[in-house]
Amino acid sequence: MHLPTDLSSYVRVLKLASTPSWEEFSQIAKIAGAGILLVGLLGFLIFALMSFVPGGP
After folding, report:
1. Looking at residue 2, what is its pLDDT?
2. N or C: which end of the chain has fewer CB within 10 A?
């Protein structure tokens, strides 16, 4: 690991990075929230299905 080279590449990436606009942020938040809800719903459905199957928890 060559420290000065690594630091310069990190600084270059940080210079290229920019903060998202409010519209972009809200769209990303909606998509992430929908994904979290979908995974939670899928987990709940699997749990409910396994509760009705004989030998479930």
Report:
1. 63
2. N
Which DSSP string corresponds to 1-57? Answer: --HHHHHHHHHHHHHH--PPPHHHHHHHHHHHHHHHHHHHHHHHHHHHHHHHSTT--
State pTM to two decimals.
Answer: 0.63
The answer to whether the beta carbons of residues 16 and 22 sit under 8 Å apart is: no
Q: Are 28 and 20 in contact (CB under 8 A)?
A: yes
Question: Do residues 36 and 30 lie in contact, with contact meaning Cβ atoms separated by under 8 Å?
Answer: no
Residues 6+ apart with CB under 8 A from 55: none
